[in-house]
C-alpha cells in the first residue's frame, strides 16, 4: 500500500521507524473506517440507500423482518423467490401504488416521477381560443374488442439477413470483445439488404410466463381493421379512435378533426385546419429566469374548411354519425364517416401529405367553414381532364384551393369529364348541386397574413399534383460502411399515372435528404407547422434520407466522448477511490431490495443503476472479483422480472397487441405505473430492462444463451422496436418511435386535444442506446445497424426540436420567443410547454432531458449546448440548490464539460466555482485545468504546509512540495457524512491527532527514510459539504458518476 514500503526492513529498523509503522497502521484502520462511513449506519441498515426517483416524497413500507444472513450464494438458483436471502428479505420495501393526480388549482404538485404522459386524469389540452396550463381531462373507460389471434408462426423475411444466434465472447468477466471493436463487418443492410425486413428474432412466440388478456380498458373505438395483427397505440392518428374521437390529428402541416356538430362550423364532416406562425399564442414569461415565453401553442378547433356530405350534416337526425378507421398503420390510416347505414366520406390520412383528400361515392358534398370565406371562385376552362378547381379566400386572409376530381376515377382516366358545381350559401356553407362520385382535395397556399411569397409556385405545384393522393408509407433502410439510409416509399392512388405526389418535409428531413431527393424539393413552397418549424414541399413518390452512423457504431458500454471514443483508461489512484465506493454500493445496499418495485419504471431504473455499476467495476476498474459478486446478485434481481414475479406481472394484451403491466387491470387506476397498461412510456420503462439485459449478456454471454432470458428481453424489444408488423404480428411496428418526426411519442391510449407528446428526450435516446447495446451483446446485426441509424436520426431530431443551442442554427427552428429556455420541457404535436408533468422547478425541467447519463449522452448533448445551459441555469451555485437526486443529475451532466470539477463534487461535495469556462472533456492527465476544478500540486507533507491529499478512502497520496510553512492535519473526505463519529467532522476523518506522530513522520521524511510514491494521475481534491446519498437519483450511483468523471477527465 502507498506509504508503507519494505515493511520487512522497517521491522528491524530504528525504534522511531517502528513507532512510525504503528502510527501508519492506525492511520490505515481509521481510513478503512472512513470508507465504511461513506454511508451512515442508519442508511446502510435500512437498505433503501438511494431514493428511486428525483424528488420522491413517498414512504417506504418495510416488510416483515427475518434474521440476517450472509448474502447471495453464487450458485443459488435463479428462481427469484428461492434466491432472496433473509438479509434482503428483512428489508424488502415496496412503494405504495402510484396514483398520479394533478389538481387543476395546483398544477405543479410534485409527483414521484416525471409522468411523461397524460392519463385521463391529467390530459394537457389547448382550448379552442387560447392555450393554458395543463388541466384534467375526463376519463374514458371501456372494454376493448378482441381481434383474431395473431399467429405465432410467421414466415421469415423475404430478403435481408441471416439472423445469427449470440456468439460466445469468452470469459464472462473479461473484455474479450471490446465495445469499440464490435461493429460487424457484414450482415444486415450491408449488401443491399433492407434493415426493416428482418424481425427482432425468428422465435415469434411469447414468453410462457406472460398471461394473455383478451380485453383492454381502453376500447378500440371504431377500428375496423382489415388485417390481423396489432394496432399502433402511440401514433399521430390515435385521437380518431380514442375517447370522444373529436380531438385533432396532426399530419403536418395540416390538422384534421371530426367536429361532431360542435364549434363555429357546426359541421359533422372532416375539418381541415392550418395555422401560420403569426397565429400562435405565447404564454407568460418563464419563472426560471430565461425571460422566454414559458409556452407557445396554436389554436385548435378552427375548422378552416370542412369537407362533409349532405347525409352527414343531418347529424343525429338520421340515426347518428359514426367515425370508423381502417388500415391503421404507423404512418397512415383510412378514416371513414358513416350515416344512414353507409359510408358517406372516406379520407386517406398520411403524415406529411401535401393535400387533404376526401373520397365520395354517390354522395352530395357539403363544404363548410368555421372561419368563413369572403370569396369563392371557380376556375375557368379545363386545367386537367376530369378536374374542377375552386379558390376559397378566407376571412383571415388565407387562400385554400379545392380540387374536385369528379365521376368514376376509371372513367376520368379514359378522358371522360368530371365535374362539381357548388351552390354557395352565405359565407360558410356551399352545397353540391348533384350527386358526386370522386375525390375532393384541399391545399392551402403559402401567404395569407405572412404575405404572398411562394403562393404562385405553390398553386402551380398543386394544379399539377391534383387527382393523386397518398395512401400509406413503406419504410426501408440500409447501411453502407458508416453511412445509414432510410427511405419513405409513398403509396398512392388516383391519377397516379400523370400526377406527381406532393408531400411536406420537416426541417430535419431537409437537412438529411440525399442529393437525389434534395433535387425534388420545391423550396419556395413552404407552410408553417405547429411545433416543427417550416415544412417544405417535395414532389416525388419516395424520399431517401442519410445519416452518418460512425459515432453510434463506436459507442460501447464504457464512457464515451465524440473526440476519444470509448474511454476506460483511468489512473490507479482514481480506481482505488472508486473501488472503495463500489464495494459499498454493490454489496452493502441491498440490490434485491432496491430492485423489487411495484413499478416497471422504478424497477427498470434500479436494475440499470446496478448494471452500469458492474460495467464500471469490470470494464474500467478491472476488478473482476467484485464484478462477479455483483453480477450474481443482478442476475437474481433481473430474474424476478424475467419470471414475471413482480407485484404487478406483465400480461400480453390481445386487444391492441402488446406487453403491458397488469397494474391498471388490478387497481382500476388508468395512471398506475405512469400509464404502462395504457401504453404510456413503454420505451422508457422497457429501455432500462433492455439495457440491463445487454450488460448481463456483455459480462456473461452464457446468460443470454439461456432461451428464457433471451426470449424475455427480445419480447420487450419487440414491444417497442418491432421493425415490421407484417413479419411479427404480435406487436405494431415501432410502437413509440416515429420515423417521420425522428423521435418517439410517449403518450399512449389517452385522448389529448394537443396530440401526442413526450417529455424526456434523454430517456428516448436511452431506449435506442439500449437497443444498440442489446444488439451488440447478442450479435443481432440487423437490430445493431438499425439502432445505429435510429440513434443518429434521433440526435438530429432532438437537437432540432428539443434542445436549443444558440450557437447551432439547426437548433433555432422553434420560435425565438421560446428557444432561450434551452429545452422543450414537454413537446406536444400542437404546443411546447417549458414545464414537466410533475413540477416547474428548473432542475426538473432541464434535468428530465439529461437522465440517465450513459455513454451515448455526449453524442446527443454536445458540449456547447451543455455549456450554454449550465451558464444560464446552474452556474454560480445554482446546481447546489437542486432538490434530492436532481443535484446528482445536474453534476453528472456538468461532467461532460468539466469532469474534474464534477469529480470534486462527487468525491467530497462542493460547488464548482463557476462554469463559464468549462474544461475540455478529456484533458491530459494532471493538467488540472478548467473552471471549477482543483489542481493538486506536488506537496511535501510535514515540515510543512497545509497538506494536499487525494480524497481516496483507504488511500492517502503524499506528494512533495517546496517550502513548508505549517503543520496541518491530513484529512480524508467522506462524501455526504456531516458527522459520523470516531473523530469525523464535516465529512472528514482526522488522520493524526498526536503531535508526536506528526513529529515522527516529519523527521522520517527529513532524513529520507520514507520514500514518496509517484502519482500516476492528478485526481482533484474533494470539495467539502453539500453532496450525499440523498443527492443521487434512483437510477444513478456514485460509482458510475465517479467513473464517468474519471474517464471523461483523464483522471
UniProtKB/TrEMBL annotation:
Residues 216-562 form the Glycosyl hydrolase family 81 N-terminal domain. PROSITE patterns: GH81. Keywords: Carbohydrate metabolism, Cell wall biogenesis/degradation, Glycosidase, Hydrolase, Polysaccharide degradation, Signal. InterPro entries: Endo-beta-glucanase, GH81_C, GH81_N. One of its GO terms (biological process) is cell wall organization. Residues 570-907 form the Glycosyl hydrolase family 81 C-terminal domain. Residues 85-200, 908-989 are annotated as: Disordered. Pfam families: Glyco_hydro81C (PF17652), Glyco_hydro_81 (PF03639). Residues 145-158, 938-971 have a biased composition (Low complexity). One of its GO terms (molecular function) is endo-1,3(4)-beta-glucanase activity. Residues 1-33 form the signal peptide. Its EC number is 3.2.1.39. This is glucan endo-1,3-beta-D-glucosidase. It comes from Pseudoneurospora amorphoporcata. The lineage of its organism: Eukaryota, Fungi, Dikarya, Ascomycota, Pezizomycotina.
